[in-house]
Target: Alpha-tectorin-like
Amino acid sequence: MGLKKALCGPVALQMLENHNTIPIGHKLRFYHMKAAQDPDLCIKTASLLYPYGKDQGDSENPKDDDGNSPEISIQTPFSFYGKKYYSVFVNNNGVVSFGKNVSQYTPDPFPLDDGVPFVAPYWADVDNVIAGNIFWRQTQDPTLLSRFTADISRYFPDISFTPIWMFLATWEGVAYFGSASDKANTFQAVLATDEKKSFIMLNYADIQWTTGIASDGDPMTGLGGIPAQAGFDSGDKKNYYNIPGSRTPEILNIGNTTNVGEPGCWVFQVDQLIIVPTAKSDCLVK
Model:
């Protein structure tokens, strides 16, 4: 078995002679030459997203394939599947986890065996070294809290909820591992609590790819292989929720689906078991 490197146009390929001998968990990197990005430049791609970026006081994850934020101590405990959590990790591969980071890049079907509870707005093989930024912050900004209160009142009219704390994680223009294209995804997870009830909103502004090459995706399209997963896993090996289309090619269309009547927006009450809005049905907006 020999290691070879080849340069073809803008794409540098690093490959093994026999790809079947690649050890499990190892990844071959495809480098796509792109212009340097200004990390302080934050383009708000859609009003669907809550405000994010350096100008909002966000922290940013390092440029590190399969990396994550440091452990973030949160100001208000967040209840998720009946347990309270006091810290989170924002993981580059499209996951917000409680208590432990997640570096896995190919999504497994829920429920998982590793016992790590997490929120997966778009669990896939993100590579922010190639392109994109991953922002996060916790906030008690009255304007944002009021906006979230109004959203929940509209989507869950029978539930009284006034959050006192929010956490926002935003993946902006992120590439897939092995990308040989300019395709990028922008999505966001918003967590909010009043110390008793907890809600999560998942927003999808622009989804152009589903799979990195280490998950058998195509380097030119970012499609195929084992596509992205979206939903929740409780960590108890029993309770979970999959957004329809997860781990299928249909997940590419998640920006056109919703459970609240607004394309690209999914909202859930998560403090006990997952509760979805009763007034709306999961639907595809054409």
Observations:
- DSSP finds one helix and 18 strands in the chain.
- The CA atoms of residues 63 and 160 lie 40 Å apart.
